[in-house]
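Supplementary Methods. Inverse-folding protocol.

Structures were first reduced to a discrete structure-token string of length 141. This string, shown here, constituted the complete conditioning input.
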């Protein structure tokens, strides 16, 4: 699947595109001869960042879910009852992220040292960089 790109979308839009793509995949994969138990997700550069962020955000959402909001599936994985959350990180068989920004603060320092606009990350991330910084998300877990 593809995703919106800056400047037509910000990173929150891109993560939403990936979340919807994963949901669609798990809902429809069997209709196309695919195996929902053998889904591998990969991304490179911005794609790697966005996929990793989507997986981390979903993991945090599941971790923060109240027991009354969740149920265990046959394989013992915890899943939310919300029909919009038909997948969880445990559903992913494999994940590969290449050449992606994993620490936005370090990336901003690098951008600035190379003469790029100090506010580029703010614009790309829609003033919500901490919510979409893989390093910060891992530190929440």
């Amino acid at each position: 699947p593809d995703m919106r790109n800056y400047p037509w979308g910000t990173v929150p839009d891109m993560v939403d595109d990936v979340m919807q793509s994963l949901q669609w995949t798990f809902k429809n994969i069997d209709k196309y001869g695919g195996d929902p138990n053998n889904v591998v997700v990969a991304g490179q550069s911005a794609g790697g960042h966005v996929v990793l962020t989507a997986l981390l955000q979903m993991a945090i959402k599941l971790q923060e879910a109240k027991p009354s909001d969740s149920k265990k599936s046959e394989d013992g994985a915890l899943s939310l009852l919300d029909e919009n959350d038909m997948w969880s990180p445990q559903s992913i068989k494999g994940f590969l992220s290449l050449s992606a920004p994993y620490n936005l603060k370090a990336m901003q320092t690098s951008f600035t040292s190379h003469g790029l606009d100090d506010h580029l990350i703010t614009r790309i991330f829609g003033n919500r960089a901490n919510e979409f910084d893989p390093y910060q998300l891992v530190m929440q877990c």
